[in-house]
Each structure stands twice: as structure tokens, then as C-alpha cells.
């Protein structure tokens, strides 16, 4: 993805100033930023990044993304904690997807932890 293009997470910022640096190895400053970067990883087909940012105690051994599923929109519904000085946080979101034959939304409240200065996705409850 071109660094000048609008970031798929819909932050309003260019990819090169938003999720791009996180995908290149920078640490997310907040749980919400990690959530946004993970959504963008789904849109760009980056399973390695998703696994890297998944907490080791809940991370699957492998992750295969459905190439026919396109993630089109992310709305952050709410956040609780998850700031730069917190050790845990929660982000509720709604994400829209579509395939050639179907479309839908995923609503989830995700749990995050920060360890050694890095945020990790732990798990989520689907609404």
C-alpha cells in the first residue's frame, strides 16, 4: 500500500503516518492504535503481523486469511483504558466485510495487554 493513501482503518491519516509504521515494527502507543493496525492488517492480508501482535498465551499456531473476504470499514464503538501508561485495555468495535456473495459485520469487544512497552491482542467477545 502506498504511504500516501488514506489508511484503511479510517483514522483519516495516510497509511504512512498511521498503521504503516506499526506494520514495519513500531510499537503501538495505545490499545486502540493496535486494534486499528490489526484491522488494516486484515484488509491488506498480513497474517504475520496479526500473529506477531497476538499475545503468546492465546495466539494460534497459524492463521489463514480468507482471500475472498474484503474488510471495508472500521468503527471504534468505545475504549476503556488502553492508554500509553496502562497495562490493559478494552476496545469495542464494529467492522464491515464483504465477499462476492455476502456481506456482514463483526462486532467484538477485544482485550489487550501491554508488556515490555508493546500492546498485544489477547482475545475478544463477539456480540
UniProtKB/TrEMBL annotation:
Domain YchJ-like middle NTF2-like: 30-124
One Pfam family from the record: YchJ_M-like
InterPro entries: NTF2-like_dom_sf, YchJ-like, YchJ-like_M
Homology family: Belongs to the UPF0225 family.
The protein's name in its UniProt record: UPF0225 protein QUG98_03045
Lineage: Bacteria, Bacillati, Actinomycetota, Actinomycetes, Micrococcales
